[in-house]
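Chapter summary example.
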Amino acid sequence: MLKKSLFIYNWPYYISENTIPSFEKKFGVKVTYDNYSSNEEMLAKLQAGASGYDLVFPSDYTVIIMRDQSLLEELNMDNIPNFKNIDERFKSLSFDPGNKYSVPYFWGTTGIGYNSSKVAKVDSWSILWDEKYKGRISMLDDMRSLFNPALKLSGFSVNTAEQSQLEKARQMLIKQKPLIKAYTSDTYVDLLASVIYGWHRVIAAIFFRR
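The structure predicted for these 210 residues follows.
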């Protein structure tokens, strides 16, 4: 039996504008929907005692942290019959064997959005270090996503745990910092839209969807 209220904590832009109103109308449930900008922001809030959420959307590595800190309850798969329709390659992954605490929701990739009338060609992550675009670059305010381009440019795996490789990527990001207009996971869609319609000076943005 559904409760009369549902509290959800999610990334921005992860559901359609019609999803919550349609759900509330169909099931008679009031949804309180909050957003966070990074796994770290979400984790800090829950660690500080914000325990009233029914559903959160952590990325892979954060599931491990939340599990170890007893911030997650085990799932009852009897309540999730559509789990059987999820592709097997997304089930029982290393961060949650047996899907005891999580089910896959989004899978995605990393890319660059840009105004093609201002940027002739984008075929490498190195453009995000190009000084001629100083003050016109936006990067996601997300630790994993931020390191990905630096690691790839250095020829390393984005999943590396080698401290020397991570340090090299960190130094690249420090060097890049003066070129960045904004680190944001909340407004990158607005920034990208402003790029397309010429309302803003930002002409390159990195985005990542899980």
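To summarize the output: The longest helix spans residues 163-176.
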